[in-house]
Amino acid sequence: MAYVSENFWHDAVNKATTDLFTFGYKNIIKPNFVFNHTPDVAHDQMIEFCNVTKRIPPLMWLLREMLDYTDPVLETTVMGVDFANPFGLSAGLDKNCDMPVLMDNVGFGFETVGSTTSRASAGNPKPWFHRLPEYDSMMVHVGLANDGSDKVIDRAEQAWTNAKTMQVSVSIARTNDDKCGDLDEGIEDYCISMRRAAGRSAMVEVNVSCPNTHAGEPFTADPDALDRLFTELDKIERPQPTLVKMPLNKTWPEFKDLLDVLAEHNVQGLSIANLQKDRTGLEIPQQWEGGLSGGPCTVASEERIAQVYREYGERFAIAGIGGVFTPQQAYRKIRNGASLVMFISALMYRGPQQITVLKRGLAALLKRDGFEHISDAVGIDA
Ligand SMILES: Cc1cc2nc3c(=O)[nH]c(=O)nc-3n(C[C@H](O)[C@H](O)[C@H](O)COP(=O)(O)O)c2cc1C
Q1: The model's pTM
Q2: I want to staple 292 with a disulfide (CB 3.0 to 4.6 A). Which of 83, 269, 296, 339 is the partner?
């Protein structure tokens, strides 16, 4: 394979276009086409944009030529899955699987589609989003709106088959609607989606930590409930690795109790973590419901990643999530123990070229510190 990093001209073009996109997004696109709309409208338009542009192959080819930065130092194999780079789109931005063609061509290592649920769901009443630019954050209260895992997983499988380099993961969650019943009903709900996902994506992520549902978070409130859920999920044969999307706001003893349960089950990875619920020190209107993305997650998730890596070592692969805007922040998560890094807010606040900014910057940091492969840096500071 010819790497961009090893071709002087391609590397120069990649750097110049990335700088140009960074300037264009900040000064033209964001103020005139994104932040001039409410976040709910901007989100719908972004999905629409992906659905239109993905049907224009020359545009996709051009995007790949200009923006996809490849470098052997970024290649990695985690949980048996090969990645061109460690960066993934975190669950929630692409609930119905409209974005993989674009994400593949701009150079994401993987995308997490979903969260999707056994039944289609309209989610919570709108507004789903509030912007908090002073904190590089978004208040999120979607409540798992999606087309249902039968449809979404069909699309994800197709996207995975057709992707040129990107891996596709599917996030499954419990349906958020008025049919929601007791714990057994919730377990069966997850099992339906897991049966649909088995063997049809590179990875599957079980989201037990959505902060925005009627049913709350019974599977993280009680380790026994989590044990019951994974005892049933273990019965579903699947070749792909399973990650669990963890909550951010637990004390270490509470968090550890959950991990001790997961360590006994067919779980290979942890996604750390979901949205921030703690608003301490932040000026946010009380009536705004939901969890916080971006800035308010950065430090809490870094610390949790290091704690988990120190205590559990190689038992779980860690996908580090929360407030990654710069290569330095990604690098810190990796040095603290994350093998993969996911983000959403950086895409919304900085633009689609941020994947290239992160890849180029991380490759430079790894080389500066003498690492030949990203995997050599994982957990070095934990
Ligand atoms: C618009 C939006 C929707 C989200 N929906 C989901 C979801 O459906 N499932 C999930 O596990 N996490 C969801 N999240 C949480 C993200 O996956 C991620 O954990 C969080 O945003 C922190 O990453 P960030 O700081 O890079 O945005 C959502 C976040 C955002 C911003």
Answers
A1: 0.96
A2: 296
